[in-house]
Structure formats: C-alpha cells, structure tokens
Amino acid sequence: MKMIATLAILGLFIGNAVCDCPNGYMRHDESCYKLYASTKATWAEAFMYCQVFGSDLAVIETAREQTFLEGFLRREFKSGMSDGVWIGGTDALVEGEWQWVKTGVSINQQEFRHWWPGEPNSSGALGEDCMDLLHHEHYNWNDERCDIPANFLCERA
Ligand SMILES: *[C@@H]1O[C@H](CO)[C@@H](O)[C@H](O)[C@H]1NC(C)=O
Ligand SMILES: [Ca+2]
Ligand SMILES: [Ca+2]
Ligand SMILES: [Ca+2]
C-alpha cells in the first residue's frame, strides 16, 4: 500500500514536471508560449529576447497550432499592443525563400502554410523580410519590415 502511494506520488511529480511550463508561459500540446505584450522590439531584438529566456521566436507547424495561437493572441490583444506580433520566420537570407530560424526548415516546402491572402507582398521600397501575425489580418501570416518595433511570441519545449 505504501509502495503504491509512493509510486502514485512519484507519478504525479513526474507528470507535473512534463506538463508544467515556466511561470508566465501558456501550455499547448508539447510547447510553452509567452507573448511579450508590453515589450516592443525589432525582429532581431525579439529573436534575442526569446533566446535569453531559453526559448525561440514561435514556429508554427500545424493548423492545430495556428488555431490555438489565433485564439490565444485574440484573447491577449489590448490597446497599446502592436498590430503585428513577431514569430520566427524570415526570408532575409534569400528573398522569397522563407525559413524558420530555429530549425532552418523551409517554410515554402512545409505542408502547412497560413499566409493571409496577398501575403507575403514584400510591401514598400525596402521590402519585408520578417514574419509576423497581424491582428487586422486575423493572425494569419504576413511579411513585415524587420526594423519595426513590435510585440513578439516566444515558444519553448
Ligand atoms: C502588404 O502587407 C502589409 C503588411 O506587411 C499590409 O499592411 C498591406 O496592406 C499589404 N498590402 C496589400 C496590397 O495587400
Ligand atoms: Ca511550434
Ligand atoms: Ca522578403
Ligand atoms: Ca506584408
């Protein structure tokens, strides 16, 4: 009996260790997410912020993850936040060849892609090489100028 109780407690402990995210993160499936809603940074700064805290700019690989993040960001949105929220895609190395920086995986070849209609549009004279989720485009994917200060979304395992 005592043995079983010990095992049960141990199981609970291990179970929690697997399921818990660090304080301030939101769990979904195998990932923990943190939206930096009151810090605005360029894409490169946001990339570094995430790394400092043991995470990466978010990588969206499935429709399920996209749907969760749309709901999460919609709930968290409040006035004062930037329209766009940085995530971890860029085509800064080769124009038009989008990749997730964390993994180096080609976004163009990923089965799941979720660009807003008309995006990426490389708008403006300077073009747009960094990926964000725009509130006014329902958190679908957009290419944005990398030097714009915006809120950002980090993800960790
Ligand atoms: C191009 O993308 C920008 C955001 O990066 C958006 O604000 C703009 O409306 C888009 N332009 C067109 C014509 O879709
Ligand atoms: Ca992910
Ligand atoms: Ca581009
Ligand atoms: Ca764009």
TrEMBL record:
* Superkingdom of the source species: Eukaryota
SMART domains reported for this sequence: CLECT
Question: Can you give the residue ranges of the C-type lectin domain?
Answer: 28-155
Per the UniProt entry, the signal peptide is 1-19
Q: Which key words are in the record? A: Disulfide bond, Signal
SUPFAM superfamilies recorded for this chain? C-type lectin-like (SSF56436)
Question: Know the name of this protein?
Answer: C-type lectin domain-containing protein
